[in-house]
Amino acid sequence: MLVVQKYGGTSVGDLDRIRNVARRIAKYRDEGHDVVVVVSAMAGETDRLLNLARELVPEPSPRELDMLVATGEQVSSALLAMALNAMGYPARSFVAFQIPIKTDELFGKARIKDIATERLRKELDEGRVVIVAGFQGITEDGEITTLGRGGSDTTAVALAAALKADVCEIFTDVDGVYTADPRIVPKARKIARISYDEMLELASMGAKVLEIRSVEFAKIYKVPVHVRSSFSDEPGTMVVEEDESMEKVLVSGVTYNRNEARISVYGVPDKPGMAAKIFGPIADEGIVVDMIIQTGRPDGRADMTFTVPKLEYKRAMEIVNRVAEEIGAEKVEGSEDIAKVSIVGAGMRAHPGVASKMFQVLADHGINIHMISTSEIKISCVIDEKYTELAVRALHEAFGLDREPETE
Ligand code: ASP
Ligand code: MG
């Protein structure tokens, strides 16, 4: 079997942990598997480097930033190779240009374009463990790039796709994907199998187990991803293609997001071009709008409500206040005390009534819904922030997630 493994920053956070990782890899080798390993920088290292740069100059150039932060992964990969070699397991570490892992030119957020496999195959054939520095790439012109925070997951999945590995194991400090945040829902369970689409919805909601881009990559190239703990041998969560059994599960998980704020513009003249006037300048400022609701009113005007990241709330409010005056809207109002609660499940596609059940559960607990949005496999409601825990717990119980999966 060919296995690609990725170890996150905490898993290689100090020398003892690096030895631990080496021992785990050695076990796979003893079982006869070929192993390619991707490592993150040691815990805290990327932040440390970024802070150094920002202390030095207010706006470091993106090229130099990538030169700087790409070093974190070089350190951890070399150390891991040394640990393995010392244990008698031949290993070699590589940074992106040696393989090469080619990306586009977008410093700090580069996309992988191509991975050559000859060198990797040769090393494997010669009986070595191959250790690859995650997070980094090289452009056509030989510039070092990085893939964005958390990008080592993407390196691992991309390598697994290029090498047609049997599985990509992501070792991290949590033991899998849960039906809800265990800090809020003590009865949350580890999910054994989940589809790429469900994982994407859960990840984008703030279930920060896997970097979103790595899941998109895994979905396109059908790479089975196993998210598991580097501190135990327990199986974690398999992220795989959707199968029939998944469709039977109405709701796989409940998530929440408290990082958004709501802005409402009342009495917008109901004529062409108004939405473009409001959202154009917001987009120009690089502010990402999430939910948008427009309601027509009998008086020929419309009300518009939408959400933006809390961090950009003030800036967005300034823009909207200005535009509202220009277009003659009646009033602008907003709130930072909101939360978005979502239920996700592949089974929603085939089963009606999931949304109405969600609304009923919230109603039964006296929770008012401000906004609703849906996708094929997700329903989100914006509520008052103070009810977040209550809502998540109530939904978790109502959809049977406290027990084994509900099938119909
Ligand atoms: N070291 C990088 C970061 O902290 C990449 C990674 O850990 O995946 O974002
Ligand atoms: Mg990390």
Quick gist of this model?
Helix content is 35%, strand content 26%. It is built from 13 helices and 20 strands. A hairpin with an 8-residue loop joins strand 4 and strand 5 (112-115).
Provide an overview of this structure.
It is a single chain. This protein has 13 helices and 20 strands. The chain has an eight-stranded mixed sheet, with helices on both faces. A four-stranded antiparallel sheet has the order 13-18-20-19, sandwiched between helices. Strands 15-16-14-17 form a four-stranded antiparallel sheet, covered by helices on one side. The chain folds into two domains: 2-173, Acetylglutamate kinase-like (Carbamate kinase); 244-408, 2-Layer Sandwich (VC0802-like), CATH 3.30.2130. The chain is of the alpha/beta class and 408 residues long. Magnesium ion (MG) is lined by residues 8-9, 40, 150.
What attributes characterize this protein structure?
408 residues, alpha/beta, Carbamate kinase, VC0802-like, 8-stranded mixed beta sheet, 4-stranded antiparallel beta sheet, binds aspartic acid, binds magnesium ion
Provide mean pLDDT, rounded. 95
Shape: globular
Give me the CATH superfamily of the largest domain: Acetylglutamate kinase-like
CATH topology of the largest domain: Carbamate kinase
- Identify the CATH class of the largest domain: Alpha Beta
Strand content: 25-35%
Strand order of the largest sheet: 3-6-2-1-9-11-12-10
User: C-alpha Rg, in Å?
Assistant: 24 Å
Q: Quick one: how many beta strands?
A: 20
Largest sheet: 8 strands, mixed
Distance between the termini: 36 Å
Q: Would you identify the CATH architecture of the largest domain?
A: 3-Layer(aba) Sandwich
Share of helical residues: 25-40%
Q: Domain count, please report it.
A: 2
Number of helices: 13
Low-confidence region ranges = none
Write out the distinct hetero groups bound to the structure: aspartic acid, magnesium ion
> Would you tell me the structural class of the helices and strands?
alpha/beta
